[in-house]
Every structure is written in structure tokens, then in C-alpha cells.
Amino acid sequence: xxxxxxxxxxxxxxxxxxxxxxxxxxxxxxxxxxxxxxxxxxxxxxxxxxxxxxxxxxxxxxxxxxxxxxxxxxxxxxxxxxxxxxxxxxxxxxxxxxxxxxxxxxxxxxxxxxxxxxxxxxxxxxxxxxxxxxxxxxxxxxxxxxxxxxxxxxxxxxxxxxxxxxxxxxxxxxxxxxxxxxxxxxxxxxxxxxxxxxxxxxxxxxxxxxxxxxxxxxxxxxxxxxxxxxxxxxxxxxxxxxxxxxxxxxxxxxxxxxxxxxxxxxxxxxxxxxxxxxxxxxxxxxxxxxxxxxxxxxxxxxxxxxxxxxxxxxxxxxxxxxxxxxxxxxxxxxxxxxxxxxxxxxxxxxxxxxxxxxxxxxxxxxxxxxxxxxxxxxxxxxxxxxxxxxxxxxxxxxxxxxxxxxxxxxxxxxxxxxxxxxxxxxxxxxxxxxxxxxxxxxxxxxxxxxxxxxxxxxxxxxxxxxxxxxxxxxxxxxxxxxxxxxxxxxxxxxxxxxxxxxxxxxxxxxxxxxxxxxxxxxxxxxxxxxxxxxxxxxxxxxxxxxxxxxxxxxxxxxxxxxxxx
Length: 565
Fold this sequence. Notes:
Number of strands: 13
Radius of gyration: 26 Å
Shape: globular
Structural class: alpha/beta
Strand order of the largest sheet: 10-9-13-11-12
Largest sheet: 5 strands, mixed
Number of helices: 24
């Protein structure tokens, strides 16, 4: 019988008889692994904390290297691709490839939003870039929420307001790179004036949820982040959903021209926190997440201290409080995108239905309220629904905080009756127009609210009052424009903002904003093509960003054709 010879085959991974000394794919750097483990310490490696951990790395090293990102993914037990897609989604994370040179030790961000551009931001960018010559990273950034003191620059995490080139240089030279803590009413001062007595009465069951819902409904209080949904109705809807229920506070006011929430948070934070805990008590939310925009680093440091005081007093005994940090994404002001970010993901808006009241954070029914909405809760309950509801003008109800900036003598947050006109805001509350400027037009609701001419300056500014004109008040961010402002340039600035901030999820918004920016750079606009693009974005985009991106464009074509044709 013939002898059978068995042939031994080489392993397919071998080369010249030698196997790999290591697994395929990106290799972990042992030093980076140790550094990440030490940086995270004893914090739980929960998936929803990914963005918080990315902030730790960015703050520590001024960038996120490929080695650190791989080590973080390994530490959290998630794929590298997942960590990478989240890190690169947010503007405040500087993710480097292996071949990239380290970034300069200091970054200066110059706000390029509309009001800052009107006040000379482009000159600041040009002069600083030329002066530093790459030794300091100088970049354009979106709205920093300080439009009343434009132009604004951020040196590290220190904000220079009413900025000049010399003031920015001085801050950099003096090492002023840390945020300033604003002067505010702290826990002890707030308690001394009756603060948290209402919350205590709720926790002691001296009040009922139905009672508070009725008061909110009777007051006419609405969501003041932009949508204007009735607060009492929202509380009632969420309370009717199955437990466990959660809550989120939207403190991500990224709409250009908006800075009212900043005023309330940095001045009287406990009034917001008490309103938050009362709302959480009404809907029986187990945890409340405060989602704060990263452009407010001083407020974050202050809130960490004051939330600790609230916890020490036992006021969180029914509701756990978590402070979450945004990372420079305007889209996360949209409630479902914010919820995705709270879960540690990219801030991509969700398709609806289901709505977040039914399917929110971690798939649980979630109450989402804006900062200013919660600020009014205590006063409304203590003073009565009629006190608030009787404040408006005409058919409007309540008080409104208008963020006024642009060509007025006295910009700032104007607390006035709902339904005032822009002419009243200018003449009665903002000291009139700047000397040498004639009122030409205005943004009634930030970048997405459209642009109206001065001839329509007597319209009441409130929810629904501007719909027939293709505009809306949104977050009540009012930017005043004058005869010194070219409306084509104004609309181009706003469209560039939307291009930069588009999450990229849907094609109409992602491509439409990009193409619109290029078309609007022409001396004479292609009206037919721009109209087609804008209509497509409005009809087919998933969320409000794409749906409203063309509003300024349409407004200019309708009211200021002489500037672009």
C-alpha cells in the first residue's frame, strides 16, 4: 500500500513562515493606556459619559491624539470607530492623526457670528493671524453668547469682550486662559430670601402635581427656548407616560444673537435649579440632566459648586442631578439631538414621532424645559398665574426676555411684556439707534427667524405673530441692522453658519447649505437656483436647522432685493 504524505499548509497570515507578532489594526500605546486610566480615575466607564471623558482628555492635553483616543475606546470597551465618530463630530475636540504635528499650546477663538462680524471680528482675525504667525492657533468660532458686548474672543477659556487686538494679546501674554466666575446669588443668599421653600413644600406633599400643572397652564408660560410649547401641557403629557421618567434642561442656547439664558444662569442660578427640581417633582423624573453649552465655562464651574450645595442640603432626594457639558455643536439645541449627546453620541436629530415626551433619554419619557422657562416657575406659583399671564401686550401673555444686539446704543437682555415691537425695543429699552445709523431691518428670532425691514418694525414680537411674513421670534434674539449693513452680506453670514453647523445627517441640509453659500458669494445672486435650493431644504430636511436655513435668504430676496440684484 502506497504511503500517504500529509502536506502541512502555512497559516494565511504568515509571511515567509513567520506569523504576526501582534494583532491586526491600530495598536495601543501602553503609555497612553496608563494616562487615560489615570485621567478617568474611579469614574464609572459608562457609555453615556464618553463626551465627558473626551473633555477630560482635551482639557488635559489641549488636543486628543490618536493614541489617547484608541486608549479611551479600549478603556470604555467600545470600538475605536465609535469613539472617533463622536470626537470628530464636535467642534471643541481637536482630534489629531498619528502624522499630525501637535497643536500650539494656546488657541484663540474669535467669534464670527453676525453681530461680532458687524463689530469688526474679521479685522481681529486678520490682525491676530498675522501677528502670531502660527505660534498661537487663531480660528473663527460660532456665536459665544455675548452679542451685547461684541466683538468677542476666547483666549483658552477666558472670554475677552468688546475685544480689541491689543486686549486679546494682553490676555494671552498674561496667561489669562481660565474662565471668570460671575458674581451671582449663591445657595446661602438664595435660601435667606425664601429660596427652596416652594420645593420643600412640594417634597412634603403640601402641594400636588395637578395643582402646579393647573397654575402653569393658567399663566400662559411657554417654552422659551424657541418652540413656545405650553409648559403646563408639556408637564401633563410627560406625567401621563409610563415610569421611569427623566428630565433634561436645555441650556445650549447656540442661536446667534441669543444670550438671555446666560444672564439668568450666571445671576440667579438657584431660581433655575429650584424651578428644575419642581418640574422634575411634578413629572416624577428620576434624574435630571442639565445640558450646558461649552461656551459658558465660568457658569459650569459655578454650577458644579452650587449643585453640590443643593445635594448637601438633601434637596435632590427625589431627583438625581447630572451636569452635562456640550462640545460646540449648535444642532444640540434641538431637543432630540441634545438627548443623543446626553447619551454620549453624535448630536443627530431623531425622526419624529415618537416624540421625546414618549421616547427620550435612554428610551424613557423625558421632559425637556428651557432655562428661562424654569426661571419663572417659582415666581408664577408664589405670585399666581394671573401675575405672569397679565403682563403681556395685546393678545400676548407673560414676560419675555429679548436678547437685543446690533446697531443700538444699549444692547442687552430686555425683560419686557410679551408682544412689544422692535421699534419699542429700540427706542424705549435700548437707548435708540447708534449715532450715525438709520434703522434698516432686524432679525426677530436669531439666525433662523428671518429678516424684516424697518417698515415692519411695529409688528408684535411673539409666538405666531410673524408667521404670515415667513419669520418667527424663536428664542427672542433680536439683532438690529442699519443702513451701514449690506443685507446680502448679512444673509451670507447666516448661511455660512448653517453650513458649518449642519450635522450632515440629511442631504438637503448638508448639500443645500454648502451650495447656497457658494451661490451667495456671487455679486449677483442666481435667484431661481437659490429659491429652488431653499425650498428643497425647507421641505425635506429632518430638523429645524435645515428647514429654517433659507429664511434669511428668502427674506432678503423679498424685502431687500436692491442689495443683491
